[in-house]
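Key idea: predict the complex, not the pieces.
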Amino acid sequence: MISGPDNSGTWAAIIDAATFRAGHNTTLVLVGATLLGIAAGLVGVFVMLRRRSLISDAVGHATLPGIATAFIIGNAIGMDGRSMAVLLPGAAIGAATGLLAIQWIVRATRLTEDAAIGAVLSVWFGVGVVLLSVIQTMEAGNQGGLKTFIFGQTAAMSATDARLMGAVAFTSIALVALLFRRLRVVAFDEAYARSLGLRVDLIDAALMALVVIVCAVGLQAVGLLLIVALLIIPAAAARFWTDRLMPLAALSAAAGGVSAFVGSVISASFARVPAGPAIVLVAGAIFLLGMLLAPSRGLVAGIIRQLSVRTRIQADHAMLHLATVGPMPIETALPPGLSGLLARAMLQRRGLVRCDERMVALTDAGLAAARLADRRRRLWRLYLIRHADIAASHVDLTADAVEHVVDPAILARLEAEIAAEDALDPPTQWPGRDP
Amino acid sequence: MSPALHEFLSIDLGPILAATFACVSCALLGNFLVLRRVSLMGDAISHAVLPGLVLAFMITGTRDPLPMFIGAAAAGIVTVGLVEAMRRYTRIEPGAAMGVVFSVLFALGVLMLERGAGRQVDLDADCVLNGLLEAMIWFVPDQWSQVLTWDAIASLPRQVWTLAIVAVVVSILVAVFFKELRIVCFDPGLATSLGFPASAVNGVFMVLVACVTVASFEAVGSILVIAMLICPPAAARMLTDRLRSQVLTSVLIAACCAVGGYTLAAFGPGWFGASRSVSASGMIAIVSGVAMASAMLLGPRHGVIARSVRRTRLAITIATEDLLAWVYRMEERARPAQIELAAETIGSSGLTLKLATARATRLGLLISENGNLRLTETGRRNATSLVRTHRLWESYLVERGGYAPDHVHDAAMRLEHAVDPDRHVRLEPPEPSTPLDPHQRPIPPRS
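Result:
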């Protein structure tokens, strides 16, 4: 992008670009790219929910023969082959033929979708590469500009191109908003959509048309090899944070917009940083953030959850062990390891056990808690024998595994049953604590 | 020695050999990718090795093949591992996981290339995509007779050597572990229950794919690698149902694509009077696409044309049967069986019905007299048996199936055509309690 060589790569340059003070052209490109990112994020959500993510990769690659053909034809009829007005329809037509080929292969032959995508992607791109080498041999062909579409180059964008990109992106955003309800029904319950009388094939076609538009219009900004990233990554990143469609779409659009904006700003402020990879890497960072930190689906949350379950299990086992056997060495009750240490800390904090240097024993509160844990285990035994048809000889193993995930509502129902059992068969004696 | 031959041997033979070896190795492994429905793993790997290549170059500072290969292979393995880990730990749809991993790694590679490495050496994105097929020159041979001498072979371009070794190693591995690959690819569950380490075989296989991808794409470019991993096996899959013949066919197709594609690219433009050749790897990809399209259309059993012929034949057979039964019913009601009326009651299209009428007349089942149809003796026997089956099905559906009498006609229309595939006899339900069908028409006796 256009930025003065004097302050390239400095904070001043980044701030200038980010606050739209780096020149009229840069500002237009930034706005256009951001709109493109938002559009791609929105469309990507539905593509992901329809499980068609990788089709967009083929669509992106399939634009190349379209671009090359449009360039050749445009030059032949005396237009500027490199103007967007010529290349954009070409790209869209190329992408659409690739898409139709994939759909035909899947419908008409025994080949599966992944093979169809891969074959179309590589063959269409091969056609494009051959056409590019043909253009190279043509005398009129000043093809220098065409290769920039493979990796994207916002620096080459004129104000007109940026306006066009922004306008098309805005139109696709509006289209998604218009079709939102229909896309939602089709994405979540195709059969229900059919029963409502919706034309699922038409809605799918509209979605794929949006993919084609986003790919075609995103060529200059991110390039045809990486446009797929803008359709996949924001949606996948947003998926970590929510299970509801509205927030999902909003988050994905935001992630796409932010990636495109930040990536373009970085590209504008540093020399030799192409916009496409910059945008994709920002999107990748946002994805990584969600993958690690999201509250319920994130990896960190998952690890914490798993650790806390294991800690509870350790603590329960230790209490039952101490209650039946009496005081014992610490490493016998709580085997060394992270969950053992955490369990010991938890038991001590709640005042359930008393530790000296070597030995550990239950407190009064601990004995009561052990009774409770034992009761829970017995409840599960009973439940599994009575209601889940598990043989009495097998039940302890299963009960050990499930007693820690007791649901309070089920617990209450089982309490009544165990009271009756208590009357017939008195509960375990507890040698438990030192007298 | 003719100059043309010298030119061919030194400029064209090396690339042809390299492309053939690369295509054959890729196609061999691609069979299992296509069958396991993970074709796009090759796509992902060939994009994602870029940062590995660039990193290896930045560390060593040379374009030495070995470190580059190690770097790229490591990146390929990391890709496979990341996709698998993401699928397992994050509940993301596998396609999306793959897309995230390879596009981010590819972006990283492009950025590294632009920022540093690419400046100092002719390693650019173009060569990653298209390969350097045209840049291989074999200096020694002047004549065909010299091609097979030791000196000539020793001076083959390095890429040809590498790819030849890779092709041999891959062929041996696939041959030796054919049984394991087959069982893991068709039924991983069975493989595990039989004690085959399915996930280990899978892991090793993916590493092999990564290595072949990396070895090939330096010479032929990543696009051609993807085409070769998928198109020849997919074409072979349209031609055969047995894995062994599929693998062999795909290898043959791959070799033909390599030679044919290169020839078209190098000499094709000359046939049209153009002076320069076009991109060879692109042309090979196109040829493989054409091969795949031809196989999809012309495959003997699964091809689109064969299938539509089969379907049309079946439709005509069914329409013939429907027509005979219709004429029988008209004669039963003592009404003229006018050809124009047939179309209204029989669900087949007009053309199918015309063909069916012609077929029935040719077989001597129907006689057409000025617009009216009449059954011959043979025709009546066939029609009686059809109508009998139809009415038996109707009775059966009402008496045993609990259908309402006015709902059984359409179901019986379909069931009456059912033929036991083993004995080639028409399926017939048990005799009903009454000799009349639910519409109070007599069920004809068995002929």
